[in-house]
Amino acid sequence: MARLSTRFLNFTLPTPLVLASGIWGTTVSLLVRAAEAGCGAVTAKSCGPTPRAGHVNPSCLDWGHGLINAIGLANPGAQAEVELLRAAKARLQPIGVALIASIFAGPPEEFGTVAAVVAQAAPDLIEVNISCPNVHSEFGEPYAGDPDAAAEVTGYVKDAVRKTGIPVIIKLAPNVPSIGRIARAVVSAGADALCVINTMPGMVIDAESGQPILANRSGGLSGPALKPIALKCVYDVRKACPEIPIIGTGGVTTGLDAVEMLMAGATTVGVGSAIYYRGPSAISLICNELTAWLDAHRIASVEDIQNCAHRERRYSLTPTGAPIPLAH
């Protein structure tokens, strides 16, 4: 049977799957459930400097080809999040699953303040959400849209947690002219890893009323429709930053989707909306399908297919006769 364990920074994760921030990141029991289902790392829901109620309903919709949501960064605030993170860490550490705290803020320096608060819980990593697409009216243009702004936020967070040694992940946006340029800027500013990508801004309109369906009017697209965009972004970031660890996130609902994401250049693979589409067993199903694919292609380790799309094109036949690029 193929080996799913993989290296991510200084961690050896039991599988390359990472619970993405959002759907299951709101309670300790859900974070542990994701870990027990097969995630190698789990991400808590983003927290900010103060509690937020988020946007009123309707705030999430299945529009037929994916989800669109404008939850609005609902969270209990960083100080309350510390207790959740501590409790989760105590449950996750014995089973070797990494805990990722996720943060957001307003002014650049406030990111450092929030990072310092959540660092009290000693999460294994801190993910910095500089790319949420559905709070524009409150926070202005996402920092992920400008390399200088993205680098500035990265610098504040790194300074705030430097003494703790907690690695920093920067979460990038897809709707930028050059995601590789943004990636290089935050890596130069000290980012230890990248999460690629956040949701894509979009809108769904009800033809009968002539109005946007979401209360916030616009929101972020996730699910299957996002996968080709996410693959391209991961591919571009890997080309721009060959050595940086990447959590490839966007539209992964099957084991084959995970294979494609790893081939595009991801080190690990984020899973979120799949839980909506395939239910609570989504993570274990993806793990099983990923293992089955590797076994069918006689590939010993999941690490052997990482970055496959960047290698010289050579072909081998699958058991069904279809050509695939050789992993090595």
UniProtKB/TrEMBL annotation:
Where along the chain is the active site annotated?
Answer: 132 (nucleophile)
Coiled-coil stretches: none
UniProt entry tagged with the keyword Flavoprotein: yes
**What does the record give as its pathway?**
Pyrimidine metabolism; UMP biosynthesis via de novo pathway
Question: What EC number(s) is this enzyme filed under?
Answer: 1.3.-.-
Keyword Flavoprotein attached: yes
Alphabetically, which GO biological process terms does the record hold? 'de novo' pyrimidine nucleobase biosynthetic process; 'de novo' UMP biosynthetic process
Q: An example Gene Ontology cellular component term from the record?
A: cytoplasm
Please list the residues that bind FMN. Answer: 21, 45-46, 129, 171, 197, 223, 250-251, 272-273
Record note on cofactor: Binds 1 FMN per subunit.
Sorted alphabetically, the keyword list is:
Cytoplasm, Flavoprotein, FMN, Oxidoreductase, Pyrimidine biosynthesis
- Compartments where found: Cytoplasm
GO MF terms here are: dihydroorotate dehydrogenase activity
Its primary localisation, in coarse terms, equals cytoplasm
Occurrences of domain Dihydroorotate dehydrogenase catalytic (ranges): 4-293
Q: Which residues bind substrate?
A: 45, 69-73, 129, 198-199
Name the needed cofactors: FMN
* Family of the protein in this entry: Belongs to the dihydroorotate dehydrogenase family. Type 1 subfamily.
The function of this protein is:
Catalyzes the conversion of dihydroorotate to orotate.
Return the HAMAP family for the record.
Answer: DHO_dh_type1
- Entry-linked PANTHER family: DIHYDROOROTATE DEHYDROGENASE (FUMARATE), DIHYDROOROTATE DEHYDROGENASE (QUINONE), MITOCHONDRIAL-RELATED
Query: What is the protein name stated in its UniProt record?
Result: Dihydroorotate dehydrogenase
In the UniProt record, the gene name given for this protein reads: pyrD
